[in-house]
Amino acid sequence: ITLHSDIPIASGMGSGAALSTALVRAVMLGAGHTAEPAEVSDLVYESERFYHGTPSGIDNTVVAYGMPIWFVKGQPPEPFVPAHPISLAIADSGIRSPTKETVGDVRRAWSEDPARYEDIFDEIGRTVLDARHALEAGDSLELGRVMDANQTLLERLDVSSPVLATLIGAARKAGALGAKLSGGGRGGNMIALVDDRVMRPVCDALAAAGARRVIVTQIGGTQA
After folding, report:
1. For the stretch 35-48, what's the b/e string if a residue is b when 16 or more beta carbons lie within 10 angstroms of its beta carbon?
2. CA 62, CA 68: separation in Å to the nearest integer?
3. What are phi and psi of 213, to 5 degrees?
4. Please, where in the chain does CATH 3.30.70.890 lie?
5. φ, ψ for residue 218 (rounded to 5)?
6. Suppose 52 and one of 79, 100, 164, 165 were both cysteines; which one would form an S-S bond, judging by CB atoms 3.0 to 4.6 Å apart?
C-alpha cells in the first residue's frame, strides 16, 4: 500500500491517527461493515499504542468523530460547537519529534518529582476548561490568552524548544491573539490563533522566522 498525505509526520498533527483511521475505515467498508466512529476510534487507539506506547486517546477520538469534541480520558467523547469560526495558522518547524519520546521523558520526570508535575498537570487541566468556555462563548481574546498560558505551562514541562519559541514569538509579535506548540512538542508544529486582519502578516512572520511550511485552517461554528 502506498500512501500520500499532506499532514506533517511526527509533528503534533495526529498524522498516525489520521492514517490509521483511513485504513481502518477502508478495511471495514470493504468488508461490508458499518464504520461507526466509536468502533473506529477504539481500533485506531490500539494502533496508537504501538506508535506511542501510552497515547492520550485524543488523536484517534477526534479523527474518528471528525468534529470538535470535549475529551476526558475514560469518558464518552462529548461533541461541541464553537460559537464562531476560528482561524489557525499552523507552522511546521521541520523538526520531527515523535510523541512517544517526549511522553517518556515527561513520565520519567514526573516519577522523580510527582508533586511538582501534578501541579502543572492540574493547571493545564484548568486552561483546557477555560479554552472550552472561550470557544463556546466566542471570546477569541480569552482563547488567545489561554493558549499563551498553556504554552507557558508546557515550557515548564520542558516540552518546548528554541525553534518553537522563535515561531511562537514571531506569531505573537505579528498580531496573533495567542500561540502555542501542538502535540508532544520539542519540534513539529505550532499553532497561532489569528483573525483575518492579521492572517497575512502572521503567516509572513512565521515564514521569515524559519517555518518550513505554513498552513491556514478554520474550525467552523454554526451558532448565531
Report:
1. bebeebbebbbebb
2. 7
3. -160, 145
4. 86-219
5. -130, 135
6. 100
Q: Which of the residues 6, 42, 59, 130 is marked catalytic? A: 59
User: How far apart are alpha carbons 207 and 6 in whole angstroms?
Assistant: 18
Q: Assign domain 86-219 to its CATH architecture.
A: 2-Layer Sandwich (3.30)
Known catalytic membership, residue 59: yes
Per-residue pLDDT of the chain (224 residues; tens, 9 = 90+): 787 777 777 667 788 889 899 999 999 999 999 889 999 999 999 988 887 677 788 889 999 998 889 998 889 999 888 999 999 999 999 898 777 788 889 999 999 999 999 999 999 999 999 999 999 999 999 999 999 999 999 999 999 999 999 999 999 999 999 999 998 888 889 999 999 999 999 999 999 999 999 999 998 754 33
Region label for 12, one of left (φ > 0), alpha (ψ between -120 and 50) or beta (otherwise): left
